[in-house]
């Protein structure tokens, strides 16, 4: 068996060497770059202008928002993660997206040109056109012929121009925005993601289409009554092909088979069709390279703080667990190397982009990786205290911790799958990074840590119990605390904490003229977009710019700098039209004075209002994803904890989800308080922090529930549920404290050393810190007592003490030689008379669960 563990370590060593090469060797770094998001490394900003065409739709706010929505879908479909897309002014859209490593500005502009292609798909009946050499059905004297890629006038043999084809054949009056009777179906009639790339004849790529119910019916009705006619597939007003209808097509499927240079071009068209057509043409009028939205200084600070936090976590593990702590540190090293390698590979192959939400998921996955080791080590220490041999204690610790690790991580993966399926942008990035981290942490905790421990305990001199700190721990003293019995205290404390926070939310709502629950940041409300062109050789720090805007009561701002230029773009809260002129002038004067420019030097280059970057739809998607995840987690826990039936298991799921909502209410209340007292604003990073807390809360609760489940199997017939739950919490208290500490240490380091220049990061880290502490509190003091209250109602039915019949006392009978017991023989029973003496452990003396 020891050889098996040595083999595992050899494999882990090979994997670690490969990961080190990918992350440290320059040629492999270039081949597999770590893609970073706009907030961390910057990218490209493009300004699109909506074109008002003669006879076309009027440019309105609603139409502008349609363009934003389509561009959001297109950018995601093209593999660009975490873009920022928002309306600007009355007829513009700003697109900001991270650059892939090694991509030049010219290549980025070409990609943008591909993104703004109209992708207008129509199936048009060519009712006056016949195929060359054939007659159109019912129209032998058709005036036009279709010859491969052109329309020919039969009488003159002349090829129609594009303009003539548009006006005479496709749209009659020349207006492509009005749908004439011969347009049968359009791209709007496709199913969601109804365009897919397949390989057709001669191994050429084709785009297979599938229509929705409306499109299927229209297509079937038309092809059934027009067999023999030509039906043109028209892309962006030009005929792609015009196949002849051979038979009725009733399955709602069609194929675009012509004109693709390669598979990539076909996939690009499919992506554009799935994203939807732009309602109006757009022009690309300006592109520029921009720095990280968080600021390069903030990114460096956060990185340094993260390293400090991880080092402190490793030192804590060494202090608390000694030799197992060293094993956990090695496993954490393997985990870090493997995850960063996967990030590089996924970035190259699937477009994974690492952003601040992704880093939040990564921090949470580190906490879960350490948590798995802590669970195993705590169970191992219990086994050693019980007198088991070292090898047996290691195996037993892993075996008894497995169910808890399994259920908590599967619940987290369920959340990730739902968030990734229904979310967009930053929500997808968070879910993907967290899922990758959870899967890898399972490998490192179960395989690497176990193999290392077994190899170490076999080494000479390392079997002494002092290396495993069995006598070291937090402890609860000689008296067992009655946590379950004080449930009214814990519930009251939760109500007070939540009530205080929501009272501030109510006060903000009462004084807010727009009836907002708390201050919303520009991610949700939109705002003003101001670009200043600084004098050559002059610049301002982010703090200096922020002080100017805060002095004018504009709150915190988002700052972004142009790469290789002097332009600085500032996003701030909306500025009312009546105040814009005066406020713009004041801001320009303030900045001119700060930078030391001449009084006549004009700083302002551009001023415009912009819409929200985190749209209402993104918010709805986030909330919907969380609710769906809660339902699925409830059902999963109902199955896994259904030792007394599905309805009994359902209580575990419901209580876990209620504890989760407790944590959500706590962090919203905290933001309400901080918003009222310090002006902190709700932004997209808060959404990410909330998702992180949700993932941690369920994970933590399941660990406590798992110990309750285990103890119920052992003592369910002997103890009431209240006592079992209390014992379980006391037994897992050390694990809960240590797991929370490892995450809190990392976040505290980030808060103290990594957020000095960025309020958004400070808010983000503070919410995470409050949420993680609340998640631990709710798992112990809310989720378990709530489950106890459910179970106490059932104890009357399930904890029944069976009555013990009194023994029948009879007069002693004379003992005759025939009835006298032989030496060592029990007295004989006679005439059915016996002394009722229940057997130890019988059902008559035990409480039972049904």
Give a structural overview.
The chain is of the alpha+beta class and 850 residues long. It has four domains: 43-111, Alpha-Beta Plaits, CATH 3.30.70.3220; 121-277, Gyrase A, domain 2, CATH 3.30.1360.200; 296-500 and 616-796, no CATH class; 527-610, Alpha-Beta Plaits. 55% of the residues lie in helices and 13% in strands. The chain is built from 22 helices and 20 strands. Strands 2-3-1-14 form a four-stranded antiparallel β-sheet. Strands 8-4-11-12 form a four-stranded antiparallel β-sheet. Strands 16-17-15-18 form a four-stranded antiparallel β-sheet, covered by helices on one side. It starts with a helix and ends with a strand. Mean pLDDT is 79; it is low at 800-809 and 813-850.
State the main characteristics.
alpha+beta, four-stranded antiparallel β-sheet, Alpha-Beta Plaits, 850 residues, Gyrase A, domain 2, 13% strand
Number of helices, where a helix is a run of at least 4 consecutive DSSP H or I residues: 22
Strand order of the largest sheet: 2-3-1-14
Oligomer: single chain
The mean pLDDT is 79
Structural Rg: 35 Å
Shape: globular
- Overall number of domains: 4
Helix content: 40-55%
Structural class: alpha+beta
Strand content: 5-15%
The total beta strand count reads 20
- Beginning-to-end CA distance, first to last residue: 42 Å
Low-confidence stretches: 800-809, 813-850
Largest sheet: 4 strands, antiparallel
């Amino acid at each position: 068996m020891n050889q098996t563990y040595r083999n595992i370590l050899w494999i882990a060593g090979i994997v670690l060497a490969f990961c080190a090469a990918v992350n440290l060797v320059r040629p492999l770094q270039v081949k597999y770059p770590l893609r970073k998001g706009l907030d961390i490394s910057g990218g490209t900003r493009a300004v699109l202008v909506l074109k008002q065409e003669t006879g076309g739709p009027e440019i309105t706010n609603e139409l502008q928002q349609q363009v934003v929505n389509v561009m959001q879908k297109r950018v995601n479909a093209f593999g660009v993660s975490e873009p920022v897309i928002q309306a600007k002014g009355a007829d513009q859209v700003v697109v900001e997206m991270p650059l892939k490593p090694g991509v030049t500005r010219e290549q980025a502009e070409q990609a943008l040109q591909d993104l703004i292609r109209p992708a207008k798909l129509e199936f048009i009946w060519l009712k006056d056109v016949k195929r060359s050499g054939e007659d159109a059905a019912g129209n032998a004297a058709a005036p036009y012929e279709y010859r491969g890629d052109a329309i020919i006038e039969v009488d003159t043999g002349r090829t129609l121009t594009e303009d003539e084809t548009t006006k005479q054949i496709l749209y009659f009056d020349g207006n492509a925005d009005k749908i004439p009777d011969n347009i049968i179906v359009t791209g709007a009639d496709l199913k969601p993601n109804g365009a897919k790339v397949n390989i057709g004849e001669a191994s050429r790529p084709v785009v297979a289409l599938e229509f929705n119910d409306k499109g299927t019916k229209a297509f079937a009705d038309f092809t059934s009554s027009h067999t023999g006619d030509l039906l043109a597939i028209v892309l962006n007003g030009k005929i792609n092909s015009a196949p002849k209808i051979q038979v009725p097509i009733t399955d709602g499927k069609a194929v675009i088979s012509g004109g693709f240079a390669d598979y990539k071009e076909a996939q690009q068209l499919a992506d554009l069709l799935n994203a939807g057509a732009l309602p109006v043409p757009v022009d690309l009028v300006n592109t520029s390279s921009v720095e990280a939205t968080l600021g390069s200084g903030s990114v460096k600070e956060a990185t340094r703080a993260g390293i400090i936090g991880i080092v402190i976590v490793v030192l804590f593990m060494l202090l608390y667990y000694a030799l197992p702590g060293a094993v956990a540190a090695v496993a954490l090293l393997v985990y870090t190397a493997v995850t960063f390698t996967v990030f590089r590979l996924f970035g190259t192959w699937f477009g994974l982009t690492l952003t601040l939400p992704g880093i939040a998921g990564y921090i949470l996955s580190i906490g879960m990786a350490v948590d798995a080791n802590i669970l195993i080590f705590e169970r191992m220490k219990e086994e050693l205290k019980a007198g088991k041999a070292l090898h047996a204690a290691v195996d037993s610790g892993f075996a008894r911790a497995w169910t808890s690790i399994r259920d908590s991580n599967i619940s987290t993966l369920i959340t990730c799958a739902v968030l990734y399926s229904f979310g967009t942008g930053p929500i997808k990035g968070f879910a993907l990074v967290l899922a990758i981290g959870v899967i890898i942490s399972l490998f490192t905790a179960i395989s690497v840590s176990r193999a290392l421990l077994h190899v170490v305990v076999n080494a000479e001199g390392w079997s002494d119990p002092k290396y495993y700190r069995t006598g070291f721990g937090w402890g609860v003293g000689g008296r067992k605390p009655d946590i379950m019995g004080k449930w009214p205290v814990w519930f009251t404390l939760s109500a007070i904490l939540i009530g205080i926070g929501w009272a501030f939310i109510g006060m903000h709502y009462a004084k807010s003229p727009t009836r907002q629950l708390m201050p919303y940041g520009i991610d949700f409300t939109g705002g003003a977009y101001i670009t200043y062109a600084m004098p050559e050789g002059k610049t301002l720090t982010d703090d200096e710019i922020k002080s100017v805007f805060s002095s004018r009561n504009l709150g915190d701002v988002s700052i972004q700098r142009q790469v290789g230029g002097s332009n600085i773009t500032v996003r701030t809260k909306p500025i009312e039209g009546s105040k814009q002129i005066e406020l713009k002038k004041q801001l320009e004067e303030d900045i001119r004075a700060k930078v030391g420019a001449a009084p006549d030097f004009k700083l302002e280059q551009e001023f415009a209002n912009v819409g929200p970057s985190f749209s209402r739809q993104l918010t709805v998607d986030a909330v919907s994803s969380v609710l769906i995840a809660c339902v699925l987690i409830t059902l999963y826990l109902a199955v896994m904890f259904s030792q007394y039936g599905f309805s009994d298991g359902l209580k575990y799921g419901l209580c876990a989800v209620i504890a989760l909502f407790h944590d959500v209410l706590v962090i919203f209340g905290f933001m309400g308080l901080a918003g009222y007292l310090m002006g902190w604003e709700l932004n997209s990073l808060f959404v990410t922090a909330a998702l992180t807390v949700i993932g941690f809360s369920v994970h933590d609760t399941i660990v406590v529930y798992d110990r309750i489940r285990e103890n119920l199997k052992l003592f369910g017939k002997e103890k009431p549920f209240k006592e079992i739950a209390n014992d379980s919490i006391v037994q897992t208290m050390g694990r809960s404290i240590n797991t929370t500490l490892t995450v809190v240490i990392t976040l505290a380091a980030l808060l103290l050393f990594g957020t000095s220049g960025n309020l958004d990061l400070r808010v983000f880290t503070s919410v995470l810190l409050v949420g993680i502490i609340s998640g631990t509190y709710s798992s112990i003091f809310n989720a378990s007592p709530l489950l106890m209250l459910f179970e106490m109602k059932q104890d009357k039915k399930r904890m029944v003490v069976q009555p013990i019949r009194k023994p029948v006392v009879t007069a002693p009978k004379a003992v005759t030689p025939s009835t006298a017991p032989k030496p060592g023989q029990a007295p004989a029973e006679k005439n059915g008379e016996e002394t009722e003496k229940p057997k130890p452990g019988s059902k008559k003396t035990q409480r039972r669960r049904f």
